[in-house]
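Lab notebook page, bench 4
Experiment: in silico fold of construct C2
Operator: M.H.
Input chain length: 344 residues
Purpose: comparison with the prior construct
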Amino acid sequence: PLHLRYHRQAQGRRPVPRAVYAVASMFAYEMEIRPESRMLILMPLTHSAPLNLCLLGATYAGAASVLVDFTPQNLVQLAAQEKTTHFFGAPVAFLLAAQLPNLAGYDLSSMKYWIYGGAPMSREAVLKVRQVFPGQFVGVYGLTEAGPNGVALYSHEHDDKAGSLGRYGTVNSVLRVVDEQGRDVGPGEAGEIIIKCASLMDGYYKNPEATAETLKDGWLYTGDVAQVDEDGYLWILDRKKDMIISGGVNIYPKEIEDVLTRHPGIADAAVIGVPHPEWGETVKAVLVAKGEPPAPEELQAFCSQYLAKFKIPKIIEYVEMIPRNASGKILKHILREQAKQKAN
């Protein structure tokens, strides 16, 4: 058996894992990818979904793939020019492309499936993009550790359930939402999403502690907290590890907090994700200054020396004290609630 099935950071050649081919074939089946199909891929192949679902799914079906860097213009121009049939992207890709002033000049009639992932899409956003993008609209949720595999929200479900992850697991996958004791939660109750599927990873490379924390009794514990509604649909509430998802990209607050506290004018820092109409979430920094608060532009310039552009806080707020519990952990749910109240 092939024990080391997938090692994304490894250099050099690796055999293509059988589990990944299984996911690719399932994706091709569910999204009706045929030899005559044409897949448009604008996301980096360092992301699991563009690589394992889109590129390998198209390759499995014998279909062509069109790969180029993302811009809103590239999306519509190449879809029309190359007569593509399938596209996968983060919600922000659709929202930005929908705002192009010359959109009506592109023939997108060849498109059959518009697939989004990395973050849910609100009902308002779905209604907006559906007006300009013909074809079926499908949302997918999954993790690299699962192949990626998980759950899908199909086109006909968006009218009533846009914003949810979906109800049924994709082929050969099962999802549950459980409490701290591993028991299934009832409708309206919060719990962690766990996944069991044929493409589940063997573990994290040379990290048995993280493997034991994530894989339990054959289930993958995602760290994503969700509710199940009366109809069985999953709705993301929060992330156990406070990860921010902006434009389908995962951002870890601690990395940003560590950079901010290096600045000589900052005494304490907390970073959270706040809602953004296009990117899903954007980065907000809540700071305690040592004296006169540094200007936001100064802090952003400082961060740019150490962080990628998409990680630099777009919103900066100064407070007298950051809420923490007795063990010193930042109470980020309080900060998020405060940000929500201010936004309203």
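Observations: The domain at 244-343 is CATH 3.30.300.30 (GMP Synthetase; Chain A, domain 3). The first helix runs from residue 18 to 30.
Next step: discuss at group meeting.
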